[in-house]
Amino acid sequence: MGYIKENPLWGTLRRSLLLLLVLCATSLQAQQMPLSDGATASVLTCDPGNDFYTTFGHSAIRITDTASGIDRVYNYGTFNFDTPNFYWVFTRGRLDYQLSCTTFEDFMYEYAYEGREVREQPLTFEAGQVQNLYILLETNYLPQYRHYRYDILRDNCATRVRDIVYSAWAQDTVLQRAAEPASYRRLLAACMKGDLEWWHLGVDLLLGLTADHRCSAPERMFLPAEMEAELAQCTTSGVWTAPFIVEPSRLLLPSHRTPLKASFPPVIVFALLFAVVAVLTWVRKMPRWADRALFIIAGLCGLFLLFMWFGTDHWCTNWNLNILWLSPLLILIAIRLGRSPRWALWLQEAMFAAAAVYVLVCGLSVAIIPLILMLMLRVGVLFKRQ
Questions:
Q1: Which residue(s) pair with 63 in the sheet?
Q2: What is the pLDDT of residue 33?
Q3: DSSP string covering 25-44, please?
Q4: For residue 27, what pLDDT is reported?
Q5: What pLDDT score was predicted for residue 242?
């Protein structure tokens, strides 16, 4: 009996289609199959890492059901580095993050490799609430729902965890601690003490007045560590005697991360630079090209702040008063120097003074003050020469 030899390409295609059908069936089964009554849910909190995008830590949700062989971690902090024009898209505030799902073992392997501490807060959910959370997560994991537009302060890996936990809890009220009032800016600054002072300076330069909003308890939970602290104080029914929403944290993975090398503090660097400029000004040896370079660099930085304000989707870079001292007006002054209009010099000096008050009142990095004083000094020299 004769036979027809199968085309290798068709065989590969058929096997791929069969695998796709199996995966689809498995996914549908996972969404429809209820968890056992012994299933549990917990919030995972991971300490910061050495990369900038890990500076503020991470949050995820773990679903465990021994009877069904399920031990999964749902992670809202995944993004694709291969996105076309990645840095431009990120700068414009148009980078999409997505929900990913992995095994608990794989999740822990990544953090063990990076040496980052991981803690777990078991949720005090009943079986039905765990099932609700599982269904919500599986629905969010569908391809048409898993992507979302990332916002570092209002819609990130931590706030997504907060919102879906509250949704699954399905209680009218939760009561949270009366935390000390703090703005988004101050909460971020607390995460960048020590070896991250240069990053702190960069963040303060980019954030506008909108980041000085006083955060409520739920709003503070945009930071994973803050969410861990807030969840530990959440109760049901709006009274302190009611059960807490989570059990006490337990350590899953201790930290053994190699700390970043200490860098020279920016406040010292810029204070020394101001001292050099002050001495050159005193002995009248400051070259004209140095003034031009100083003013042009500051003016171009101001144009970038304007771009971040008007040319991007970042709401937290709006109303950035650093534009007072990183002023595009300095470009005009750089071009004309001694022939600059007196009104421009007067205006710029007033803007420097207002910027110094803004930095001190809103608690921006003190490394900005020597820069303001240096620019103020050189513009003042031009005014005196007139």
A1: 41, 72
A2: 59
A3: HHHHHHHHSPPPTT-EEEEE
A4: 46
A5: 60
CA of 275: how far to CAs of 286, 334, 373, in Å? 12, 21, 10
> Are 58 and 79 a contacting pair, CB within 8 Å?
no
Q: Determine the residue type at 58.
A: H
Res 21: pLDDT: 39
Rounded to an integer, what distance in angstroms lies between the CA atom of residue 64 and that of residue 74? 11
Q: What is the mean pLDDT of residues 108-122?
A: 94
Give yes or no for a contact between 125 and 168, defined as CB atoms under 8 angstroms apart. Answer: yes
CA distance 158 to 45: 9
One DSSP character per residue, 304-356 reads HHHHHHHSSS-GGGSS-GGGGTS-THHHHHHHHGGG--HHHHHHHHHHHHHHH
CA distances from 364 to 41, 102, 202, 220, 322 (A): 39, 39, 10, 19, 10
Cα(54)–Cα(226) distance, integer angstroms:
15
- Residue 58 tokens read as 């991470």
The HSE-up count of residue 124 (CA atoms within 13 Å, CB side) is: 15
Question: Which amino acid is residue 10, in one-letter code?
Answer: W
Ramachandran angles phi, psi of 189, nearest 5°: -60, -35
Q: Are 209 and 319 in contact (CB under 8 A)?
A: yes
Helix (H, G, I), strand (E, B) or coil at 125: coil
β-strands 250-253, 58-65 pairing? unpaired
Quick one: tokens of 114? 């990076």
The verdict on pTM exceeding 0.70 is yes
Q: Residues 123, 64: contact at Cβ < 8 Å?
A: no
- Rounded to an integer, what distance in angstroms lies between the CA atom of residue 306 and that of residue 318? 9
Tokens matching residue 343? 């009104």
pLDDT confidence band for 177 (50 / 70 / 90): low
Count the Cβ atoms, other than its own, within 10 Å of residue 81. Answer: 6
| Cα–Cα nearest to 295, from 338, 258, 254 | 338
- What whole-number distance in Å separates Cα of residue 41 and Cα of residue 244? 14
Q: 3-state DSSP call for residue 63?
A: strand
Q: b/e string for 17-53 if b means 16 or more Cβ within 10 A?
A: eeeeeeeeeeeeeeeeeebeeebbbbbbbbbbbeeee
